Amino acid sequence: PTLAGLALGFGRQAWTSEAFSRASLAAKPASRHDIGSFVGARRPGNLERTASGSGVANDGRAAATVARRASLEAGDTILVAGAVSPTGMIVTSMLKGLGYDVRPVLTKTMDPYAIWGMPIRGFVPGGGEPTPAAAGLVVADEKFLQTDLVVAFVKQIGKMGNLKRVTFLSAERARSPLENMFGNTEEEERRAREDATLSACKEVGAECTVVRTGVLRGGGSKSDCPYNLGPEVYMRIIDSVSSIEEELFDLNQRGAEVTDAATSTVTEGGKFGGPFGKKSETARTTAAAALAEAFSAESAADKVVDVVSVEGTESLSSAKW
Length: 321
Prior knowledge:
By secondary structure, this protein is an alpha/beta fold. It has helices spanning 2-11, 22-25, 32-35, 86-97, 112-116, 147-158, 177-181, 185-204, 232-235, 240-252, 284-293; strands at 47-49, 55-57, 77-81, 101-104, 136-139, 165-171, 207-213, 215-217, 255-260, 281-283, 303-310. The chain starts with a helix and ends in an 11-residue tail after the last strand.
C-alpha cells in the first residue's frame, strides 16, 4: 500500500507531454566530470565533527550516527520516487548515465522509454514484480507527499537489508514577500519532514543526504546539462516574458553554492527562512546533480546541505563540487 500510494501521488505530477520523450532526453551519457562529483562541501563553523565521527550542526540538528557503509557503485539498484517530476526525470537519466540500475517508481500506464528515450526498467507497485532490494533510494518529488508516507517508504525498503543510502530533495515553494511577513510555517514543516526522513534512515541503518534547495527553476535546453528536458520547458510557460526569464536563468545561473544547512535557520533569516532571508533559487539540473552524485561520495553521507544556484557560465566541475 505504501508503494502504491507513492506511485499514485507522484503520477499526478507526471509531465506526460510527448515533448519530454526521445527527442529531449536521448542525450549522450554523461561522465562523472560532466555532472560533477558531489562531495558535501563543508564551511568552517557550520558542522563540527566529534571524535566518534558523528556530525552535529550548530543549530542543534544532529546528523544520523549509523555505522559508515560503503558508497554505491555502478550496477547497484537505485529506486527513484518522484521520477516523473521534472527534477526526478533529470536525476533518473543522470543515474542511468552513471551506470546504476535505476528503477523509477511508476504507474502501470507509464512507458519508461517514452519518458526517458532510453532503456530504463520502471518499477510498478502491485504490478507483479517483487519490490527490488535497492541499495539506494532517491526521493525527488518537488511538491512533497505526507511525511508519514515517505517515512514508511524508507522503512519498507530498508527492511530488505540492502539499503545503503537515501538522497532526499527538499525544495522551497515559491512565496510572495507578503506571505513571508506573516511567518513561514512551511519552512518549519519542511525541516520537520527532513528530520523525520533522517530518523527513518538511521532506524534502518542507511545513510542519508538531504539536499535543500531554493525555488526550483529551469531544466531546459539552455542549460549545459546533457540530460535537460529540452526546449519544451520554456514552451509550456504561457507568459512569454516568464518563458524568456526561464531561458536566461538556465543560461546564466549555472554555478552553485553549497553550504551546511546550519546556516539556514528560521529565526535568523538564513537562505530559506525568515521574512528577510534572501530569495534563493536552484536550477533543477544542479539539484539533480547533487542528488545523483551523493551516492558515490562517502563525504556526502548523513549531511543536510543547502544548494542554491549562482551566476556562472558552466556547471561545476567535479573538483569544484
